[in-house]
Amino acid sequence: MQKRIIYVDNAATTPLSKEAFEAMRPWLTERWGNPSSIYSIARDSRRAIEKAREDVAAAIGAKPDEIYFTSGGTESDNWAIKSTAKAFASKGRHLITSAIEHHAVTESMESLKSEGFEVTILPVDKYGLVDPAELEKAIRPDTILISIMTANNEIGTIQPIAELAEIAHKHKVLFHTDAVQAVGHIPVNVEELKVDMLSMSAHKFHGPQGVGALYIRKGIRIPPLLHGGGHERGRRSGTENVAGVCGMAAALKHAIETMPETSARLARLRDRLIEKILQIPHTQLTGHPEKRLPGTVSVVINYIEGESIILLLDRYGICASSGSACTSGSLDPSHVLLAIGLPHEVAHGSLRITLGDDNTEEDVDFIAEKLVEVVEKLRAMSPLWKG
User: Fold this and answer.
1) Which terminus of the chain faces fewer neighbouring Cβ atoms within 10 Å, N or C?
2) Catalytic residue positions, numbered
């Protein structure tokens, strides 16, 4: 008998939606023209890309010519940070970010240090929130870029981006946000957030893997990260992924249309699961209790390791994670959990459950039931628990 699978790792990646698949199908099988060519099937591909650009722009309140398609969130983050640093180096060489950013941001910042740039890493409070007053204090005359994520990929905390961006602009500093976990799940409007650049990735909202976008506010000129044939209006070279961008646009359009209902349903399931998990002794919620993504449940369970929890849950067909999928091979505790003040030994017991469209109340109850069994089994073997 086939094991029932309950997938609750949607912050890592989401299954491709029916809408995205149908939008992609013709460009994978029937209409393969290179959009940079000039014959008719190529012009069809070009029109499809520009329609997708319009749809993605509309979803976040941007203009179509402010959207540049990329290979995903990592490329978008790298482009925004590294190219801005190089473009504005004559004005200053100081950048600001937070202690809980995705590695695509932190490693991009780190790489710039070898080129003579300075980086200030802002602390966060116990919920993972950046203090706007701390941001303002960190800004210097030579600050050229601030990058703060919209919502955290591990603990789900949502930042006050509009307030932070307003502070940046008061000091004439550019503001970028990694919105990979936010777009398609909570309302994101670039005009309301006042951001200058915004990264997104299709596979986080039921689009295909390997495609994303960077929003660059009109008037901001940063050099390309990738050089070649001058695609994307000369700012991002590489033959366009026609099927990918069409699938991305369709997935995002559907996510926006269904967001009110979906978000409310996921928030109910999230709160139900949190309530059940916190009945386990020595268990703690991580992230803000209210300012959090609708589907994100993040906890630490004392005296056992998160990796062991994940492996045992997998025996029951439950696919969860102990943190960011991008660092799942690391033996170090999450930098996010350390940044919110958790000791190493506690941070090692992290569990992240991110709910999605297919999850039900029955799933939530089953997860809670099996998690109790898993925790009891692991603690029975733990010398820390016995002590």
Assistant:
1) N
2) 326
